Amino acid sequence: MNAQGRGRGRGQDRGRGRGWGGGRGLGRGRGGGRELGRGRASHHQTCAACRHQRRRCEGDCRLAPYFPLSRYEEYASAHRLFGLGNINKIMNSAAHCERQGAAESILAQGRAWNLDPVHGSTEIIRTLLEEIDRHEKELAVVNQHLEYYRRGGQGELDPSLAGQSSIVCQASPEERGKMKAIDAHQMVNCDYGDPSPSTAGTSKLEL
């Protein structure tokens, strides 16, 4: 009786062991399934906007294509400047083909104000406008000299353009022919006081 009881006890213990073990194995399998599900859900990477809001980024997030997580710092600066509501308004008001440009403009504004909290992008715009004005004046000077030599040196140069800038340009063979250059390798050095050609090492207009 004692031997039979012991045998039954061992059999029951073994059965219980197998049962719990199987249950635990099934649990691991379910856990693995959940992990696979999470892997599929995380295939869509969180965008910078959703990360900043600490919310889940869905696959249909409209800001995700324009504000990737790799540009989070730039977006954070833009968010401090505009706020999420204004960013959404700007993006929604832009046509589909213009949204990438709108996003780049938003990020650029954020960078500018982050670097210069006082002037922001105003200083950058002022510098660019000054460069445009300078290049327009240089272009006017070059065009006047080209027209002067097309006329064979007849007429006078506009003295109001004197002293605007120093411009270095390489004259093409055709222009050198129009300007009556003596040699194809001869360059032109001219100023307002003496617009006659000379044999300088490079073609330089000193104004």
Q: Can you characterise this structure?
A:
This protein has 207 residues and is mostly helical. It is built from seven helices and three strands, in the order ααααααβαββ. The protein has helices at residues 2-41, 48-53, 72-82, 84-93, 99-115, 122-150, 173-178, and strands at 166-168, 189-190, 204-206. It has a three-stranded mixed beta sheet with strand order 1-3-2, with no helix packed on it. It comes from Punica granatum. Residues 18-30 have a biased composition (Gly residues). InterPro entries: LOB. This is LOB domain-containing protein 25-like.
Largest sheet: 3 strands, mixed
Strand content range: under 5%
The average pLDDT value, as a whole number, equals 70
- Name the structural class: mainly alpha
- In percent, how helical is the residue content? 55-70%
Shape, per Cα inertia axes: elongated
Order of neighbouring strands in the sheet with most strands: 1-3-2
Distance between the termini: 123 Å
Family: Belongs to the LOB domain-containing protein family.
Biased composition (Gly residues): 18-30
Protein name: LOB domain-containing protein 25-like
Domain LOB: 45-146
Quick recap:
This is LOB domain-containing protein 25-like. By secondary structure, the protein is mainly alpha-helical.
Name the descriptors:
207 residues; mainly alpha; three-stranded mixed beta sheet; 57% helix; disordered C terminus
Give me the secondary-structure topology.
Blueprint: H1 2-41, H2 48-53, H3 72-82, H4 84-93, H5 99-115, H6 122-150, E1 166-168, H7 173-178, E2 189-190, E3 204-206
Parallel strand pairs: 2-3
Antiparallel strand pairs: 1-3
